[in-house]
Amino acid sequence: MLKNTPYIICCDGAAQALIAHGIMPYAIVGDGDSLPPEVKETYPHLVHTIHEQEYNDLTKSTRFLIHSPLSTPGIPMKVAYLGCTGQREDHTLGNISLMTFYHREFHVNPVMYTNHGYFFPACGTQTFPCLPRQQISIFRMHCNQLSSVGLRWNAYPYDEWWQGTLNEAIGDTFTIHSDGEYIIYQTYTPKP
Do 120-190 and 2-115 fall under one CATH topology? Predict the structure, then answer.
């Protein structure tokens, strides 16, 4: 994905790793706390430092993107997020939950790609493509009603995040019925 996209916005220190792999970002955005001085000095035209601490660097980068010339007013952007674990589990959980916030507040269609699958937010009743035996997890965010068609175990308004994990598609689509927001996780490949 990194080699095939024309526009990459890095959060702070991730820029050093990207540049080391021979890929130049469109912009480097964040509070600058993990950005090495040599990157700041070598690429000052790419660095956009935002000092406020209400939002994390991923959110600062997303706001930068939606206010950039890459964004078309009135048309929701598709945004791929890579390497968003922050190398800590609390960063991982926080960044996954931000997918719903970005969808609702920034009107983007975010997908967070991981080593084994991808997370994306959804709202209301929707049908999703899948593969038979593909592993599916549903994380209830802001909804009171939740049910499913096309999964091995019917979804319900889970009290805990773990309750919606480790489900499985039984066909080539599944449908979630909901009155609010939730996050879907799908593995890249089905279970053998």
Answer: no
> What is the CB neighbour count within 10 angstroms for residue 146?
19
Tell me the one-letter amino acid at 122.
Answer: A
Condensed to tens digits (0 to 9), the pLDDT of residues 103-147 reads 999 999 999 999 999 999 999 999 999 999 999 999 999 999 999
* 2-115 topology per CATH: Rossmann fold (3.40.50)
Percentage with pLDDT > 70 across the chain: 100
The residue ranges of every structural domain in the chain are 2-115, 120-190
Q: Tell the residue number behind the tokens 């792999």, with chain if given.
A: 21
pLDDT in tens, 24-70: 999 999 998 888 899 999 999 999 999 988 999 999 999 999 999 98
DSSP state of 161: G
Distance CA 5, CA 1 (A): 6
Please name the fold of domain 120-190: Jelly Rolls (2.60.120)
pLDDT score of 95 more than 90 = yes
Residues in the chain: 192
In degrees and rounded to multiples of 5, residue 134 shows phi and psi of -70, 135
Please provide the distance, in angstroms rounded to a whole number, between the alpha carbons at the two ends of the chain.
Answer: 25
